[in-house]
Write a structure and sequence with these properties.
This protein has 287 residues and is an alpha/beta fold. It is 37% helix and 21% strand. The chain is globular. The two termini are 15 Å apart.
């Protein structure tokens, strides 16, 4: 992203800490996400990524530190004061979290009803526009049990954007999807960010997706920020921890298996394909 020195961040996390029982989960985490930017929050399981998302939405308050949404603090304030800030955010949960007893239309319309919108024509237009933006025209009467995993994720995205948020928070949006559907969902996320100008923070382990779509990457380790930079910075990083995470290198000695049919560099090849896709023809635009 270009110079941001004179731009107010849409998300500002300032030295937050969190602890559950005796387990320290976050230990002085600070970062910013600027308007229209797509930032990927990555790190190993248990690093605190999803916990950070719950703090951004005000579902959790930090023990110490501060969180600001569009210049206003959302941490450690009364619940009724959080609501106006939550209206600026759309949240996509890890498994979609659709209501099984509701149709696709009803699932997407749910946040509008919660916001007090009752006009049927307005509801229908906003829901159908949201479904069209994720490529699900004609699916409004289907039940969650009758659609694929990829469609469930798209419905969840439509529900997140139907209220016209300024910022979208995604928790593992490609988890459990096959590679082709994962690529399609990644493209959708980036496309919404670009075309609608929505500030985006995505928690993911999908490094191919990260290289394809992120403007910046933040690597979380044991509740602290170990590294941050652009996809190009990550590719060029001399930090062995960053390179191992990028390429999925566990340190296991694959040669011991002594099977010439196995390809221990499979994950590295996938990442190299993502790097080639993003940087071989364009150096500044991910799509």
């Amino acid at each position: 992203m270009s110079d941001t020195s004179n731009i107010q961040p849409f998300i500002k996390v300032d030295q937050i800490t969190q602890q559950f029982g005796t387990q320290k989960v976050l230990n002085g985490v600070s970062f910013e996400v600027f308007p229209g930017e797509l930032v990927a929050l990555i790190g190993g399981s248990g690093a605190g990524k999803s916990v950070i998302l719950k703090h951004l939405d005000g579902l959790l308050d930090p023990l110490t530190g501060h969180i600001y949404i569009d210049g206003q603090e959302i941490s450690n304030i009364p619940e009724k004061k959080k609501y106006p800030m939550r209206k600026k955010l759309g949240f996509m949960f890890q498994q979609g979290a659709l209501f099984d007893s509701m149709t696709v239309f009803e699932n997407v319309a749910f946040p509008l009803g919660e916001a007090g919108i009752t006009d049927e024509k307005e509801l229908e237009k906003r829901v159908m526009d949201a479904l069209a933006s994720v490529g699900l025209q004609g699916s409004e009467d289907k039940m969650p049990a009758n659609i694929s995993g990829g469609m469930i994720k798209r419905v969840a995205v439509a529900r997140a954007i139907v209220s016209d948020p300024q910022c979208l928070l995604y928790d593992e949006p490609t988890a459990g999807l096959d590679p082709i559907v994962s690529d399609s969902v990644s493209y959708l996320i980036r496309n919404i960010c670009i075309n609608q100008g929505i500030t985006t923070l995505i928690v993911t382990h999908d490094m191919s997706s990260v290289i394809h779509i992120a403007d910046r990457i933040i690597y979380l380790k044991e509740g602290t920020i170990h590294w941050q930079g652009t996809p190009r910075d990550m590719i060029d990083s001399p930090d062995p921890m960053i390179q191992d995470f990028l390429h999925g290198v566990s340190g296991e000695d694959w040669n011991k298996l002594n099977n010439p049919k196995l390809n221990p560099d499979f994950q590295q090849n996938i990442i190299q394909d993502a790097i080639n896709d993003r940087f071989s023809t364009q150096t500044s635009q991910p799509l």
